[in-house]
Specification:
CATH topology: Rossmann fold
Number of strands: 5
CATH class: Alpha Beta
Distance between the termini: 44 Å
Strand content: 5-15%
Radius of gyration: 16 Å
Largest sheet: 5 strands, parallel
CATH superfamily: HUPs
Helix content: 25-40%
Order of helices and strands: EHEHEHEHEHH
Oligomer: single chain
Strand order of the largest sheet: 3-2-1-4-5
Structural class: alpha/beta
Amino acid sequence: MKKAVVVYSGGMDSFTLLNYVISKGYEVSALSFNYGQRHNKELEIASYFCTKEYINHQIIDISNIKTLLKGSALTDKISIPHGHYQDKKMEVTVVPNRNMIFLSLAIAYAISLNINKIYLGVHSGDYEIYYDCRPNFITKINEISKLIHEELVKVEVPFIDLDKEKILSKGIELGLDYSLTWSCYEGGDKSCGKCGACVERLEAFKNNSKQDPLEYQ
């Protein structure tokens, strides 16, 4: 059977990606990271889904790294801004070099499992403020990957030309249950509906003429 490592946060993009890769006939090893983010709700729901579906899942605790990741609202004592990702103020949600950190560990994990494919759920909606989600970053990561192991471990990004609306459309086609995801940057019992992650998520559901199954404040 084909095998792949999927970087899985528990959010709607990586949830869609995980199920998309499985639908392509891959046996998946899901990899999540506790990097000291504001809350663990995404990780909890990621763990729940993988346990429910008998998917091999590792949550790697690198939470002490947050002491090096200053200036981000996701890892520092900074208020979460409200609005759309295209707003300039959303730059405060950038976690420095996050995807480089995650992919370095994912490549090592894949090598240890003798797996040559890693899937990451970056998409076109991330380009505006997240430099490590852009196509040229992925190209360079794969060039580096060639240098560290005799057999190429390639990072695949099947959603990189899609926005969240189109990603959700793919998930709807797959019949996915998005109540098994969490997007909100706040850690409340209900999604805030105001942070960039919530705004973009709600917009995607609206544009697909669907109701988001999550509850909002």
